[in-house]
Design goal:
Elements lengths: L5 H11 L16 E6 L6 H17 L4 E8 L7 H16 L7 E8 L4 E7 L22 E7 L5 H5 L2 H14 L4 E9 L14 H17 L6 E9 L2 E7 L1
Parallel strand pairs: 2-3, 6-7
Antiparallel strand pairs: 1-4, 2-4, 5-8, 6-8
Length: about 250
């Protein structure tokens, strides 16, 4: 009786090419990637616009890709500033460049030594990047807190992109997290200057601005009106200061 050695049979099969071993495949894993950063010292709002414009083609050519905007306040910045910058960037991409709102994600990342905005491209199915603050500013809980301040009805790119959401959504979120806190909205009318022809706002303009801010917080977020004090700050720069009263 002839004996067949299993080892010889296996070698014969392999060399004959009847059985092919699968090639090992190395899986590549996509991750979110940071593509740009900018700060609040760029010379104009238009310069900020071009940082955002650089990402429009990527988003248009890759319709399942998202953009994540992470904004960090500087060590001396009011807590609402970073969120306002992030939301005005989103407003530009959605309202002016037609990017779907679900594809632009904003994150308020906390604080770093210097103010910074990061732009991240996030492929489909990839987790959003996690914010990485580097400092924790001191907060005197016994003192009133200036949450943010901003201009109203001014000229330039930045004012055109800062809608009510950019101005007030972060403030509303803060008030909801601390239901016992009170808020004060101080609005200022534009002062005039005869030397350059700058006209004074009409009397009562500051109060009208403050009422509009309060109405947005009450109607959109259900903030109890009694928690919101409005103050006509008189004449200065045309803008608003948001305070948390403790």
């Amino acid at each position: 009786m002839t004996r067949y050695f299993p080892e010889l049979i296996c070698l014969a099969v392999l060399f004959s090419g009847v059985v092919k071993l699968p090639h090992a495949q190395i899986a590549t894993r996509e991750t979110a990637r940071k593509v740009d950063t900018y700060n609040d010292k760029i010379p104009s709002g238009e310069a900020e616009q071009w940082h955002l414009e650089d990402q429009v083609k990527t988003l248009t050519d890759n319709p399942e890709t998202r953009l994540c905007i992470i904004a960090y306040g500087g060590q001396d910045d009011a807590p609402g500033k970073a969120g306002r910058f992030a939301l005005r960037a989103k407003h530009y991409l959605v309202s002016m460049r037609g990017i779907d709102t679900e594809r632009v994600v904003t994150i308020t990342g906390g604080h770093r030594k210097e103010f910074q905005v990061e732009l991240w491209i996030v492929p489909k199915g990839v987790a959003l990047p996690k914010p990485a603050p580097t400092i924790q500013p001191s907060d005197d809980l016994g003192d009133n807190l200036l949450f943010d301040e901003f201009e109203i009805d001014c000229e330039g790119w930045k004012c055109g992109q800062e809608d009510d959401a950019a101005h007030l959504d972060g403030f509303a979120a803060f008030l909801k997290r601390d239901p016992k806190s009170q808020a004060c909205i101080i609005a200022y009318a534009q002062s005039g200057d005869d030397r350059d022809g700058q006209k004074w706002n009409e009397a009562g303009r500051g109060l009208k601005i403050a009422r509009a801010q309060k109405r947005y917080l009450v109607n959109k977020y259900g903030i109890t009106p009694s928690r919101l004090t409005i103050v006509d700050g008189g004449y200065s720069w045309r803008g608003v200061a948001l305070w948390i009263m403790r």
